[in-house]
Amino acid sequence: LIVLPFLQPSATLTSADFNSDEIRNQRLMEKCDILVVGPGLGRSTEAFESALIFIKLAMNLGKICIFDGVL
């Protein structure tokens, strides 16, 4: 289980941190079997942009994506 830091309230990472490190993001997604995005993500623009980066990566890698409570 990999919980990305931007999901934790005390995290100081922003979507810019994830945008700037494509190699790290790719490696994280390669280690995962599945991507789950849930209501704990929040509704901020930065949370949305960060999630979108990983959703695109997951789709490109053929990973299963589960969206729980996301509109």
**Main sheet characteristics:** 2 strands, parallel
Based on Cα principal axes, name the global outline: flat
Residues in β-strands, percent = 5-15%
Radius of gyration, CA atoms, in whole angstroms: 11 Å
Class derived from helix and strand content: alpha+beta
Task: Give start-end ranges of low-pLDDT stretches.
Answer: 6-13
Distance between the termini: 24 Å
> What percent of residues adopt helix (DSSP H or I)?
40-55%
Mean pLDDT metric: 75
Number of strands: 2
Tally of DSSP helical segments: 3
What is the H/E string? HHEHE
Widest beta sheet: strand line-up: 1-2
What does this structure look like?
- By secondary structure, the chain is α+β, with helices and mostly antiparallel strands.
- The chain is built from 3 helices and 2 strands.
- It has helices spanning 15-19, 22-31, 45-60, and strands at 34-37, 64-67.
- It has a two-stranded parallel sheet.
- β1, α3 (45-60) and β2 form a beta-alpha-beta unit.
- Residues 6-13 have low confidence and may be disordered.
Question: Characteristics of this structure?
Answer:
71 residues; alpha+beta; two-stranded parallel ribbon; 11% strand
Question: What's the layout of helices and strands?
Answer:
Elements lengths: L14 H5 L2 H10 L2 E4 L7 H16 L3 E4 L4
Parallel strand pairs: 1-2
Helix pairs in contact: 2-3
In short, what is this structure?
By secondary structure, the protein is an alpha+beta fold. The chain has three helices and two strands; from the N terminus they run ααβαβ.
